[in-house]
Specification:
Elements: E1 2-7, H1 21-34, H2 36-41, H3 44-54, E2 63-74, E3 77-84, E4 96-103, E5 106-113, E6 123-128, H4 134-142, E7 148-151, E8 167-173, H5 177-189, E9 195-202, H6 211-220, E10 224-230, H7 239-245, E11 253-257, H8 260-273, E12 279-282, E13 299-303, E14 308-312, H9 318-324, E15 342-347, E16 350-352, E17 358-359, E18 364-367, E19 371-373, E20 377-379
Parallel strand pairs: 8-9, 8-11, 9-10, 11-12, 13-20
Antiparallel strand pairs: 1-10, 2-3, 2-7, 3-6, 4-5, 4-7, 13-14, 15-18, 15-20, 16-17, 16-19
The structure holds flavin-adenine dinucleotide and FE2/S2 (inorganic) cluster.
Flavin-adenine dinucleotide binds next to strand 5, strand 6 and helix 4.
């Protein structure tokens, strides 16, 4: 176990403003193309196909991005640097994108936090290859410079506020460094005058993702103290060790991302010590989806927005049921983290498949990917 504190001092980078002209131009065009009169003559997907044939980055509706560089960060981690098309609306530090790929004829999606600085011309995400992981393995072995990926707009609420607190702690372990290095880059770009500790836990120097950029940040950004903690198991990192390294922990608003065991231990410590500073966290893996406690009875789900109704046995999440019924609800992580699938349940009883909580409150926000219907349900979908 070893701590290597490194102090940092320096520079200012202005935040680039993102152009949104493409949305302004495209939205009315897409609306016009979706008008029933126009649709009877020309299909939007035919226009999309024609545009793609002209140039793979051209689209009226999808953010597409060309892979312009692939950086091997460690033996198991790569950064994909992308040049997005004009539909990209920018991101806040800490947000993620859904990356869509076709693998063996099946369309799959995974969430990846952006590791780049918000406002930068190019964006980047960084992927750790998971053993037998479908998408991370595909990204590592098959995606090359020049390929075009379809990505979502930036999503997620794990972000830095506009008004920053005076003291911050950015805390990460393993691949959880990806959203917090974006935050660190953002702080530097915003010329943050407060006091930042960036503490990262990984197994060994060879496993340190962003080793080079961290050294540059350490050299250039005056208000940051960088602490690297090497340990063979991130899960064994003790909150007491954290308190030793960061004695004013109770004064530091903290943003944390890492493996579940690491984050559970830190959260429990925060609660048990009653630390007053806020602790925000991002998880890459959701709590397990449990079987419904009372499935089997057919119930009716009505979706006010689309006018669709469908019957469910209350076994699968409402997101899956709605997709089977031909709807395409917005979604991101599909594991209850990102809130992209939130919609209002106007009436009826639902069960949260992660906590088992059953709720009948009217007009409540539910996450479709982790909720199942326990009675007839009306949704705003
Ligand atoms: C909001 C959000 C942001 C994310 N950002 C990043 C990121 O910046 N970089 C990154 O590498 N990943 C990130 N992830 C995780 C990523 O979305 C995928 O889950 C991961 O790449 C594995 O996908 P796969 O298809 O390779 O594995 P799958 O085929 O889906 O799963 C393979 C096995 O690995 C397990 N597994 C999946 N993810 C993890 C994990 N992160 N740690 C340990 N075991 C896991 C699964 O339980 C399964 O057993 C993020 C996830 C979320 C929800
Ligand atoms: S899709 Fe992310 S919370 Fe449901």
């Amino acid at each position: 176990m070893q701590f290597s504190p490194v102090s940092i001092r320096n520079t200012i980078v202005p935040v680039a403003a993102r152009t949104r002209w493409a949305q302004t131009v495209n939205a009315p065009l897409v609306k016009a193309l979706r008008h029933p009169w126009v649709e009877s003559i020309v299909r939007l997907d035919a226009v999309e196909d024609a545009l793609t044939a002209l140039h793979p980055l051209l689209s009226l509706t999808e953010v597409r991005a060309r892979v312009v560089r692939i950086v091997e960060e460690t033996a198991s981690t790569k950064t994909f640097v992308l040049q997005p098309n004009a539909l990209w609306a920018g991101a806040q530090a800490g947000q993620f994108v859904r990356v869509q790929l076709e693998i063996n004829g099946r369309r799959v999606e995974r969430a990846y936090s952006l590791s780049s600085r918000p406002g930068a011309r190019r964006i980047a995400f960084t992927t750790k290859r998971q053993q037998q992981g479908l998408v991370s393995s595909h990204l590592h072995t098959s995606v090359k410079v020049g390929d075009v990926l379809t990505i979502s707009q930036a999503l997620g609420e794990f972000v830095l506020p506009d008004a920053l607190p005076a003291k911050l702690l950015l805390l990460s372990a393993g691949s959880g460094i990806t959203p917090v290095i974006s935050m660190l880059r953002d702080l530097k770009a915003r010329n943050f005058q407060g006091d930042v500790v960036f503490l990262h836990v990984c197994r060994a120097p060879d496993d340190l993702i962003f080793a080079q950029p961290l050294q540059s940040l350490a050299a250039d950004f005056p208000n940051v103290r960088l602490v690297l903690h090497y340990d063979t198991r991130a899960d064994s990192f003790s909150p007491e060790g954290l308190a030793q390294q960061v004695p004013d922990l109770s004064e530091r608003s903290t943003w944390m991302c890492g493996p579940a065991g690491f984050m559970d231990a830190i959260s429990a410590y925060w609660d048990s010590e009653g630390l007053p500073a806020p602790l925000w966290s991002e998880r890459f893996v959701g709590a397990p989806i449990l079987p419904s406690t009372a499935p089997g009875t057919p119930v009716l789900v009505s979706c006010a927005g689309s006018g669709t109704t469908f019957t469910t046995q209350g076994t699968d999440p409402l997101l899956v049921q709605a997709e089977r019924a031909g709807l395409s609800p917005k979604h991101g992580c599909r594991i209850g983290i990102c809130r992209s699938c939130q919609c209002i349940k106007t009436s009826g009883t639902v069960e949260n498949l992660q906590t088992g909580e059953v709720s009948s409150a009217p007009n409540e926000l539910i996450r479709l990917c982790i909720s199942t219907a326990r009675s007839d349900v009306a949704l705003s979908l």
